[in-house]
Amino acid sequence: MPSKNAKVLTIGGQETLPGQQYIIEIPVAPTYTHDNLSISLKVIRGKRPGPVMFVCAAIHGDEINGVEIIRRLLKDPLLERMRGTLIAIPIVNVYGFINHTRYLPDGRDLNRSFPGSSRGSLTGRIAQTFLNEVVAHCSHGIDLHTGARHRSNFPQIRANLADEATLAMTEAFGAPLAIDAKIRDGSLRQAAGDMGVPVLLYESCEALRFDETYIRAGVKGVLNVMRHLGMLRKSRARIKPPVISRSTSWLRAPESGILRVLVPLGAEVEKGQTIGFIADPLGVSEVDVVAENAGIVIGRTNLPLVYEGDALFHIAEIGGRTNWQVDEFHENYGPVEDELDPEDLSQAPIAG
């Protein structure tokens, strides 16, 4: 992939130069009360040429874990010695972010609306703006997501692993699990891929929630990809390759009731294993929730009240036994007691 790091890079009508940092506001449609809104970008340009990578979050406005990942990334001192250019967009869907919702005011999903159109819906116009003002300047990208409301995702990469450049980025990221995910029509991954820009999608946590361990894993993963691309100096640390799954499925509630969950996120389960119970409030009726396939629990509902047919557990099939060590992941990325720096509480771990 050739570098797109031109000496002068114009974003949102503003010229940016190597060795400088910029905050750029890209205007989008004002609210109906006529308050102005914009998508805020931070552009960090290294003194030396190299790849141009974007990192974005909150394409779905209630998926906020990635917003904190980007905030911490931008404070990392390693960026002072960076090659190439980093374009950070912590909040793409500003409308949804303000209103704590996944969608835009017109009810559309931004991640199903690319490449968009300047004459289309509000969502379509924002999609086109983001492609033209950000993605078109880039050689690589990372898109940060979470589960939906009341659903948590275990840290995972979703990507087109048939593409060599994307597979190499996936292996470099260092997430414990990677899903060879089909590219959805209208997604950012599809539109960027059509422009020759490989994009990883990092999933973790739940909508409207932070998770300290998953945030740390996300920051480390982005930095790992930057090292792989030559934007940062290589590290001697060995990155464990992810377990790869090429098929996932949701296990749904066999009947309505109150769910009791028996396995945590990241658990490896066997076919036929009881991983939950659903009972009525009086305990008269109780039914087992049984895994239909062996695999790893990569997503789970957090809401105990379920109707028949509700999605309960998302299981990634892994094709036989693996050296899956979820405890090792938590040990590597979990906070430690003596880590708090009273001189810089902005970097303090988020309390659980």
Short recap of the structure:
The protein is of the alpha+beta class. It is 20% helix and 31% strand. The strands form 3 sheets. Strands 3, 4, 5, 6, 7, 8, 9, 10, 11, 12, 14, 17 and 19 form a 13-stranded mixed beta sheet that branches.
How does this model look, in words?
The chain is an alpha+beta fold. It contains seven helices and 19 strands. The strands form three sheets. Strands 3, 4, 5, 6, 7, 8, 9, 10, 11, 12, 14, 17 and 19 form a 13-stranded mixed beta sheet that branches. A four-stranded antiparallel beta sheet has the order 16-15-13-18, with no helix packed on it. Strands 1-2 form a two-stranded antiparallel ribbon. A hairpin with a 6-residue loop joins strand 15 (274-279) and strand 16. Helix 4 (164-173) crosses helix 6. The longest helix has 17 residues, at 212-228.
Average pLDDT, to the nearest integer? 94
Helix and strand pattern: EEEEEHEHHEEHEHEHEEEEEEEEEH
Strand content: 25-35%
Distance between the termini: 41 Å
Oligomer: single chain
Unreliable stretches covering 5 or more consecutive residues:
none
Envelope shape: globular
Strand segment count: 19
Helix content: 10-25%
Radius of gyration: 21 Å
The helix count comes to 7
Topology:
Blueprint: E1 9-11, E2 14-16, E3 21-28, E4 37-45, E5 48-57, H1 65-74, E6 83-89, H2 94-98, H3 122-133, E7 140-145, E8 151-159, H4 164-173, E9 177-180, H5 188-194, E10 199-206, H6 212-228, E11 243-245, E12 247-252, E13 257-261, E14 268-269, E15 274-279, E16 286-290, E17 295-301, E18 305-306, E19 311-317, H7 326-333
